[in-house]
Amino acid sequence: MKRPYNFSAGPSMLPEPVLETIQAELMDYRGLGCSVMELNHRSDAFEEILHGLEARIRRLLKVPEDYAVLFCPGGGRMQFSMVPLNLLGAGVSASYVVTGTWSKGAANEAARFARVHVAYHGNGTKLPDEEMLDIPEDASYVYYCDNETVHGIEFPEPPAAMVGIPVACDMSSNFMSRPFDVSRYGLVWAGTQKNFGIAGLAVVIVRRDLLGLASPEVPTMLNYDTYVRTGNLPNTPPVTQIYVANLMAQWIEKEGGLDVMNTRAIERSSMVYDALDACPHMYATKVDPKARSRMNVTFRLRDEMLTDVFVKEAAEAGFINLAGHRTVGGIRASLYNAMPIEGAAGLSSFIRTFALRHA
Ligand SMILES: *Cc1c(COP(=O)(O)O)cnc(C)c1O
């Protein structure tokens, strides 16, 4: 069976070998007579999955010893609350770099607990210049989103102006797609349903000296310490999500690691951007070329009437889920780890032929 190429922004495509392993292990996980979903979470078999996932994340990202790796339920948005509840400490303010939908959502949620200082407020098409960021010294931390999934803008690397106070970063849609220097951050978090598995789980990497700052009123399950103290088993964890993330980590290692993921991400996105740039009469790209995301390519049809036609004809040609986010419209092609180069190549020729056919 040939499956279509799935450009969904999340939940998103998984590599076929990962799906095949899930299928093969569903009725009987390694001779235990049941699936991982039916297994006690304190069994040796599950603990091996949990520890295997942590060890692989540490290896792939070279996570320094003074950082804890946590697995929190509640997906991405739960971290909008957990980050301020845990990192504010005795401070009352936090600084947010707002580059698009997701950093704005995080700033709004933080405003329920903290005085939020907005260090930059963009319109989703470009990133701040270093000198545009003014970060107050009394902020407990500065927060930004590395890749804005809705608008398709991505930081090439974290702005240097942020160092000095702990940097908290939402990497939900580009985590595990390239190496990065963990030691530049106080905290990095990522929901897993983009490059690293399925929805409902967040991986949190946090410097240990930032633990223990939460006030006593913070609910137990929203306190990072709870996950550290219990070895990521404060209750029954999201076992399926952890199992699939571990399969993703194994797949990434087998494919050659994060440098390979990055090379492929650049190759895939360049092919699609090149096709768009070659047909400017048909397509408009709003994002500043310096901020173009390797993960989410966003564009519009100059003739808005053709947007639905594009989505429909693409699906018929085997390229599915290309409609842009409901809040911004247009087209969005998400090109995460699982997307084969052939999928991006196929989409870029579709983009070119569509422009010829509808010229
Ligand atoms: C998807 C996404 C989120 C939200 O994740 P949920 O699991 O739906 O809460 C947050 N930030 C970014 C950058 C995302 O791409």
- Output the CATH class name of the largest domain: Alpha Beta
Number of helices: 9
Radius of gyration: 21 Å
Q: What is the strand tally?
A: 14
Present as ligands are: pyridoxal-5'-phosphate
Major sheet: 7 strands, mixed
Structural class: alpha/beta
How does this structure look, described?
The structure is a single chain. This protein has about 350 residues and is α/β, with parallel strands linked by helices. It folds into two domains: about 15-255, Type I PLP-dependent aspartate aminotransferase-like (Major domain) (Aspartate Aminotransferase, domain 2); about 255-359, Alpha-Beta Complex (Aspartate Aminotransferase, domain 1). Helices cover about 35% and strands about 15% of the residues. It has helices at about 15-25, 45-60, 80-85, 100-110, 225-230, 240-255, 260-280, 305-315, 340-355, and strands at about 5, 65-75, 95-100, 115-120, 140-145, 145-150, 155, 165-170, 185-190, 200-205, 285, 295-300, 320, 330-335. The strands form four sheets. A seven-stranded mixed β-sheet has the order 2-10-9-8-5-3-4, with helices on both faces. Strands 11-12-14 form a three-stranded antiparallel β-sheet. Helix 1 packs across helix 6, helix 2 crosses helix 6 and helix 7 runs parallel beside helix 9. It is globular. The model has no long low-confidence stretch (mean pLDDT about 95). The chain binds pyridoxal-5'-phosphate. It is found in: Cytoplasm. One of its GO terms (molecular function) is pyridoxal phosphate binding. Catalyzes the reversible conversion of 3-phosphohydroxypyruvate to phosphoserine and of 3-hydroxy-2-oxo-4-phosphonooxybutanoate to phosphohydroxythreonine. InterPro entries: Aminotrans_V_dom, Aminotrans_V_PyrdxlP_BS, Pser_aminoTfrase, PyrdxlP-dep_Trfase, PyrdxlP-dep_Trfase_major, PyrdxlP-dep_Trfase_small.
